[in-house]
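Standup notes, protein team

Yesterday: finished cleaning the Sorlinia euscelidii set.
Today: ATP-dependent RNA helicase SUV3 C-terminal domain-containing protein structure.
Blockers: none.

Input for ATP-dependent RNA helicase SUV3 C-terminal domain-containing protein:
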Amino acid sequence: MTPPAKAGREELERAEKRHKRLVAWRWLSIRFPEFYRETDRAAEHTEALNDWIESVLRQQSHRRESVRHHDGPGARHRRAGKPSSRPSLHRTRRRS
């Protein structure tokens, strides 16, 4: 698996889909134990995948926070070419 600090959106989405399948497997193993075996292994994979997903989300959150603090308020909107929703601190002069 990709290290959490280097994981992108696609890896995260794939991991989330894999996690959903593992959760479904575990549910089916309770319902139909004769067909769905290896529940211990599925539980181990589920736990490891969950830890990885949480780590990726934490890394992404830290990156967003550092960009937000570095660029200041409204920077995200300026980068996207949109006006900030915050009032401007600069006064505009009216021309006579």
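Follow-up from PR in the comments: Residues 39-71 form the longest helix (33 residues).
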